[in-house]
Write a structure and sequence with these properties.
heterodimer, A: 246 residues, alpha/beta, Rossmann fold, 6-stranded mixed β-sheet, 4-stranded antiparallel β-sheet, 33% helix, 27% strand, globular, B: 330 residues, mainly alpha, ABC transporter involved in vitamin B12 uptake, BtuC, two-stranded antiparallel sheet, 16 helices, 4 strands, transmembrane transporter activity (chain B)
């Protein structure tokens, strides 16, 4: 089966700095792919190349079997790549359902003053998120009132809910306590069953071992190793990240 | 028997927990409804002090004198929701009034003159919005600049002369009524109701709230935040133009050197109403209550024949008290 995302030999320089010197990555549908590496290994630059923030200098990015070059994150989103950034892009003073449907509101009528179909959005948010989340907050609650884990879950649930084929998550549980981290990991597990490809950047190797199907290691702007998670142990990953023998 | 008692106790407990009592114990309830609560308290005090306060004639007068402030506060609400502020109201209002007067006295007819006044206000709003969103000038500075500019322009265009506008239509607007309901405040209340619906029931309103709540996140979600910020200042300006028509109807003329205190009271009304000056929250019902609180204070003091020197002190204290209460907000 064609992987959702297929990246080959992507290179990107900023002036004299070669941030990417041959990055590779495969994200199959229905799997969790982990991207690991030390700070400055090129993970963030690679993500920015995928989502259209940067244009790669060379190499190929295929999305659902098609070569793509997104001009902006909005462009990437329109084609089905959602990114959950660390700031989550939630509006604290709006309710859960309003955030869920932000800029995708269901409306009746036409023109700039289209009428919101509040009832339908509230019900559908309950259905969509209720199915995925273990710690589902009240749909009408303002995000300001939610815990960090609930916010993270809403942001991920929203990203996964809009017909996207690929959800990219940057350190999805870095700021969370133990129990909340568990809830977010359950959500990620549930999304696997939805057939979405998930790409996760994480420094937490225990977590990577727990939730991922495959692991890709970057160092010095290159992809230097990849394994099926079940075939590798933590020591070898650490060695690869740090620059020992693979 | 003992068992029966037990059951009845349980029932009361259930009733209590779903009733208003727990709400009253929640400090957030007081913070969210500071203006409405303030209005009730101040109204109760005045109606104890003078029997005239709670008569329909007085309430109706009070609403009429609150009308222009209500429209201006609704205008201000749009700017404040995005985290902005509109200081140019005090220059835009006399400017739009002068345009209205010149247009009508120049023989353009009432309909065209009203449209001209609203367009004059809209134009100022559009300039505010463009300077703020495109030239990236801070809202406070941009509208402060426009305040000076429009005060000057109003004086130049009118040659510094105030003039009267005589029209049966305007008289009917200022004095007429449907049954006991005067047109004057009916218009103001309809505008406030419209603004409330925009924020609660339209995608546009939601996007404005998102822009004010977290500009970066709104942009990430694909909302055109610059266009939103321009749009709110355009609506703001149009409403100021409309307020100018009401002002001319009420005073019978336009005065280019009008120094309106309603700039500060419009901001005070919005803040009293519970909208954050940092943006993201629209409490139009609160803003209406806020404008009514400020007008009620003046009305009650006049009824009680308290020296008008004390009025600004009372207004100032109420605004600060409301700000303290709003720290309890949820």
């Amino acid at each position: 089966m064609t992987p959702v995302l297929d990246i080959r030999d992507v290179r990107k320089s900023f002036g004299a700095v070669e941030a990417l010197r041959g990055a590779e990555l495969l994200c199959p549908a229905g799997e969790v792919t982990a991207l690991v590496g030390d700070n400055g290994a090129g993970k963030s630059t690679l993500i920015r190349c995928i989502t259209g923030v940067h244009a790669p200098d060379s190499g190929s990015i295929s999305f659902r079997g098609e070569a793509v070059a997104f001009s902006s994150p909005t462009d990437a989103r329109a084609r089905g790549i959602e990114t959950v950034y660390q700031d989550l892009a939630l509006i604290e003073d709006l309710a859960v359902w309003q955030n869920m449907y932000l800029n995708r509101e269901l409306t009746r009528g036409f023109g700039p003053f289209r009428w919101l179909e509040r009832r339908r959005m509230i019900d559908e948010t309950q259905t969509r998120l209720g199915r995925l989340l273990v710690n589902m907050p009240p749909v009408r609650a303002k995000v300001r009132r939610l815990s960090g884990g609930q916010r993270q879950s809403i942001a991920i649930g929203r990203a996964a809910s809009w017909g996207s084929s690929l959800v990219i998550m940057d350190e999805p549980t870095a700021a969370l306590g133990l129990r909340e981290r568990g809830a977010v990991e359950t959500l990620i597990g549930n999304l696997r069953g939805e057939g979405i490809a998930q790409l996760i950047i994480s420094h937490d190797l225990e977590q990577v071992m727990r939730i991922s199907d495959s692991i890709w290691v970057m160092r010095g702007g290159r992809t230097i190793a990849n394994w099926r998670t079940k075939d590798v142990d933590r020591t070898r990953i650490v060695a690869a990240i740090a620059g020992g023998t693979v | 028997m003992a068992r029966r008692n037990y059951v009845s106790i349980v029932k009361t407990e259930t009733l209590k927990s779903t009733g208003i009592a727990p709400k009253l114990r929640d400090p957030g309830f007081w913070g969210d409804n500071a203006a409405v609560i303030g209005l009730i308290v101040i109204g109760a005090i005045f109606s104890m002090l003078t029997p005239y306060f709670l008569t329909w004639a007085n309430i109706s007068d009070l609403l009429v004198s609150a009308s222009i402030l209500l429209v201006l506060a609704t205008a201000q609400q749009f700017a404040i929701v995005t985290g902005g502020i509109d200081l140019s109201i005090a220059g835009n209002l006399p400017w739009a009034a002068v345009v209205f007067g010149l247009a009508y006295n120049g023989g353009l007819g009432m309909g065209v003159s009203i449209i001209a006044a609203i367009l004059a206000g809209t134009l100022v709003g559009a300039v505010n919005g463009l300077v703020i969103a495109k030239l990236k000038v801070n809202d406070f500075i941009a509208t402060l600049g426009m305040l000076g500019v429009m005060n000057g322009v109003a004086l130049i265009v009118s040659d510094g002369q105030s003039f009267s506008v005589n029209s049966h239509f305007l008289q009917a607007l200022a004095l007429g009524s449907i049954g006991p309901v005067r047109y004057f405040y009916l218009i103001a209340l309809l505008i406030a109701a419209g603004a409330h619906l925009v924020f609660t029931h339209t995608a546009f309103g939601t996007h404005v709230l998102a822009t004010g709540g977290n500009r970066e996140a709104a942009r990430n979600m694909g909302i055109p935040v610059s266009r939103m910020r321009i749009a709110v200042y355009i609506i703001d300006g149009a409403l100021v133009g409309l307020a100018a028509v009401l002002l001319v109807a009420r005073t019978g003329g336009s005065d280019p050197s009008l120094q309106t205190s309603e700039l500060l009271t419009s901001i005070a009304s919005v803040v009293l109403g519970g909208s954050s000056l940092f943006g993201g929250r629209a409490a139009v019902v609160g803003t209406v209550a806020g404008a009514l609180v400020l007008t009620t204070l003046l009305n009650g003091f006049t009824l009680l024949q308290v020296s008008e020197f004390y009025q600004p002190i009372a207004v100032g204290i109420v605004v600060i008290a409301a700000a303290v209460l709003s720290r309890l907000q949820r």
